Amino acid sequence: MRRSEGLVFDEPSLCCFEREAGSARLVAAGRLAQPMLDRTPANMYISKPLQRGVLQDMASARELLSYALARAVPRKSMTGPRGVFGIPADATEAERGALLTAARDAGFKSARLVAEPYLAALGAGLPVDKPTGTMIVECGAGTTEVAVISLGNICVTRSVRSGGASLDKAISDHLHFRHKFLVGEASAENLKIAYVLKRTSSPDEPGSLSVKGRCLTSGMPSTLEVPVTELDEVVEKHVRPIVDVIRDALLETPPELSRDIHDRGIVLTGGSSVMPLLRTMIEESTGLAVSVAQEPEHGVARGLQRLLA
């Protein structure tokens, strides 16, 4: 995200390395590394710099940031750019320090960290700086954060380290245990996307979805037909902890802010906010109106742009 141009780099947080004489050489990063998931030979491996929203691998984070920096920022001077990074509101000091170190090592002159729920609310165009309560639920790949914001600050925050990636894993585990059928990460994600499209376009005719993988019974490559109603069970189990943390946040919200949220409702953002059951279960559990922000997958990025403006 650049101040004048908006979103200039939007790629997955992935790196592919090749082992060379006790060291590792970067082979591909971002979108180029995505097709290599579950397809690498013994001398290569995929690394994910982020796990549940925070840094887990310093070396791959440095390489990914360097890769992004080289493609998004023209090298016109000897000094690196200043950067603003989104980070979970509940990140520890160690996690914050690790991200700052990785940014400096990648070539950033300075780095500032801002809580992602605040950025998501800012990107959604919510009145974050006014004396009124706003509840945002940022549904990311690695973590889901709930925040009540007023006067430019987070008043109440709760989170669950669960998001789109953990739903992919839940779908993969379900197929493994119930059907003795193995699928890779990419196939599980594609099945999730197909499920969302099916539930959105034909809610009254769920039918089934097909996925390719390996049957453990025969040991052979095969195709499995999965009823959409069966995936409903997996999604409902995944959504339940999110609903619980929303209720916990509402219980701790001061009365005047609660009144504002009652009038305004809850806003969902993030790539996982389009999950059909999520909105329904939140509305049923809280009795509040729930809406999804426009282009929810780019909420944090738009917030960063507005912060830079």
Description:
- With 309 residues, the chain is an alpha+beta fold.
- It has three domains: 15-108, Nucleotidyltransferase, domain 5 (2-Layer Sandwich); 117-162 and 238-297, ATPase, nucleotide binding domain (Nucleotidyltransferase, domain 5, 2-Layer Sandwich), CATH 3.30.420; 165-234, Alpha-Beta Complex (Actin, Chain A, domain 4), CATH 3.90.640.10.
- The chain has nine helices and 15 strands.
- It has helices spanning 58-72, 93-106, 116-123, 164-179, 185-201, 228-251, 255-264, 276-286, 299-308; strands at 15-20, 23-29, 44-47, 50-51, 54-55, 82-87, 110-115, 134-139, 144-150, 153-160, 181-182, 208-215, 221-227, 266-269, 290-292.
- The strands form five sheets. It has a five-stranded mixed β-sheet. A three-stranded antiparallel β-sheet has the order 2-1-3.
